[in-house]
Amino acid sequence: MNKPFSQACENNKVPILQILKSAFAHSRRVLEIGSGTGQHAVFFAPRLPHLIWQTSDQPQYHAGILEWISESPSSNLKPPLSLTVGESAWPTHTYDGMFTANTAHIMQKHETKLMMEQVSQHLPEGGMFCQYGPFTQDGVFSSQSNREFHQQLIESGYGGYRDISELTLWAEPLKLLAINPMPANNLLLVWQK
Asked: Which residue ranges make up each domain of the chain?
């Protein structure tokens, strides 16, 4: 099997890590929602040795994630849990940190809403949620390329970009602490319960 590969993950992993280092400074267990290829997990876990990094995704992505983990094992990196928002039960462990990258614009609107609600419901008081991806702010796209990509997503049957105001509403009682500009017109949102 050819290991899955995402060029975007390679491009954004270093700037994301810089933010995670401070956002997750006091976290002990982090749940990654939608680990995708597994590239982020194998890069972040050894560089955040004070916490346990738990991967998760839909079952069809597990083989690829496991391949990345087997090539770059880390004592604090856990094999993927099965998690399909809206279908699976939420993982039973308590996680004081949660991370997701490039999920909100792929999911349908109702799935993104449910993800935000579940994150806010399952994070303990003081827990952190870091959310990376392309978003609109007050209905405004940050670039023409983002507007075009949103249109392509909708035409391909995906949910498309979500506005930060929608996410804020769905994530209550989480507070949006920071909106960090990232490469390729993306953002990293840092939330706290």
From this structure: 7-192
What is the pTM assigned to this prediction?
0.97
pLDDT band at residue 2 using 50, 70 and 90 as cut-offs: confident
- Quick: pLDDT tens for 19-49: 999 999 999 999 999 999 999 999 999 999 9
CATH match for 7-192 among 3.40.309.10, 1.10.10.10, 2.30.130.10, 3.40.50.150: 3.40.50.150
Query: What whole-number distance in Å separates Cα of residue 158 and Cα of residue 150?
Result: 9
Q: Which two tokens stand for residue 130?
A: 């870091």
Q: Decide if 56 contacts 35 (C-beta within 8 A).
A: yes
Burial class (CB in 10 A: 0-12, 13-18, 19+), 108: middle
